[in-house]
């Protein structure tokens, strides 16, 4: 799907696309001026049916504003909210960069991304992942020390894409 096709069929407004009139009375009566897409529970995202295919809304908005998405690249939601498709919340990145911007796992028991309790040594184990490779940051007697070490490692290894593990609905602790 090209940027020209997107511009000729949709109007963008605050993270949404709206159908433009096509001069087809049946289509225009049903769709023109209405928000495009519907929420897909499986994808946890809004999907648009367009040209006999389904497109994730955030990808469609990127193409609308910037043109084709290069091969091997993805669109990342900066604030991790897959329902927030404002263009200022989207960025182009590769797969590794996109995985840097993830929140802590749902089965995390320490409350800190990259930190778990090691019962054998009775210490907090800190680690980060880079390109699917686990990097040990160290073992620490206190959770606070482990958290500080993993945060420092995340910033050093993931740079501006570093995510400390908090979703947009959670507030990050004061440091």
Give a written overview of the molecule.
With 175 residues, the protein is α+β, with helices and mostly antiparallel strands. 26% of the residues lie in helices and 29% in strands. It has helices at 3-9, 25-30, 57-66, 95-100, 143-158; strands at 10-13, 16-19, 38-40, 45-50, 53-56, 73-77, 90-94, 115-118, 123-130, 133-140. α1 (3-9) crosses α3 (57-66). The chain is elongated, with a radius of gyration of 21 Å. Residues 167-175 have low confidence and may be disordered.
Q: What is the structural class? A: alpha+beta
Radius of gyration: 21 Å
The tally of strands reads 10
Arithmetic mean of pLDDT: 87
Q: How many angstroms separate the termini?
A: 45 Å
DSSP helical segment count: 5
Major β-sheet strand ordering: 3-4-5
Strand content: 25-35%
Report low-confidence residues grouped into runs of 5 or more: 167-175
Task: Please state the overall shape, judged from the principal axes of the Cα atoms.
Answer: elongated
Q: Report the helical percentage.
A: 25-40%
For the sheet with most strands, the description reads:
3 strands, antiparallel
SSE order, as H and E? HEEHEEEHEEHEEEH
Considering the chains and any ligands shown, give keywords for the structure.
alpha+beta, disordered C terminus, 26% helix, 175 residues, three-stranded antiparallel beta sheet, 5 helices, elongated
Sum this structure up briefly.
By secondary structure, this protein is of the alpha+beta class. It contains five helices and ten strands.
Write the layout of secondary structure elements.
Elements: H1 3-9, E1 10-13, E2 16-19, H2 25-30, E3 38-40, E4 45-50, E5 53-56, H3 57-66, E6 73-77, E7 90-94, H4 95-100, E8 115-118, E9 123-130, E10 133-140, H5 143-158
Antiparallel strand pairs: 1-2, 3-4, 4-5, 6-7, 8-9, 9-10
